[in-house]
Fold:
Amino acid sequence: MKALLLVLVFSPAVFAQNLYMDDSQIANGRFWRETPHIAKMMYLIGVGHGLQIALVRAGTDGKCPEKLASIVDAPPGAIIDDYEKEFDKLYSDGENLQINILLAWSYVDAKLKGNLTREQLEKMLIGLRQDAARHVQR
Structure:
């Protein structure tokens, strides 16, 4: 009887879907919307530093992907607040909540740089949504 009771109590936790991460355990838009301002700032700073480290490591291997290098270069005059505001806008749309933050970074970065048309940005966003739908944690 105790075993059955334990199974009934803990099974929802075991089989529950983590709404705040995708299947790669990277935070998504639901996490973003629930996170306080200062934590968002720290998260974005950490992602930025992580991208810089990845770029340095890729450069030491002689394989510095252009896409990675372009993401690390911040738009002229942009500050971390600008990124936070764009993430807030992105995740204010319920369709985008499943997109993980690291993938969304490339979209937000491209938007802030202004080197893509609206159509290109929309196509990029559709691709991110489709990718996110494939990686929903089940």
